[in-house]
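job 3f2a | input accepted
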Amino acid sequence: MQVSKIIPINVYNKTAYSIIAETNWFNNFVFYTEKTAKPIIAKRLFVMFAGINYLENLKKAGFQTFHGIIDEKYDSVVDNETRWGMALEQVDWLQRQSQRDILNRITPILEHNFNHIMNTNWQENFVIELEKDIVRIIDH
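job 3f2a | predicted structure (140 res):
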């Protein structure tokens, strides 16, 4: 088993939130990895350092993000350094808040995301979307 597939429970139990530095930070496509899945499975708030609209694409996949708790405007900023700077501001903001208050507010989101990732047939969804793309390409 690869270490990247293990959720670091001892670390998670000593912290409240996750910072995700996703593998792909390019703005022309989204590629989800275990870096995103781990905090969802571990039921944690996360701030994303990735390409533009990464959070928006998570929403399209049925997940909820933390808009309304943190300012997720950073997700739509084209310039990488500006986007990541804005994301870092949210990390700074979080550490100044009542952890108990934040955790109480995010519980429904965490539960939704956990249930969604664990109960969705991702392989079937992929095949359905691939078939749609193939039909779309053939029809053009």
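job 3f2a | The first helix runs from residue 9 to 12.
job 3f2a | closed
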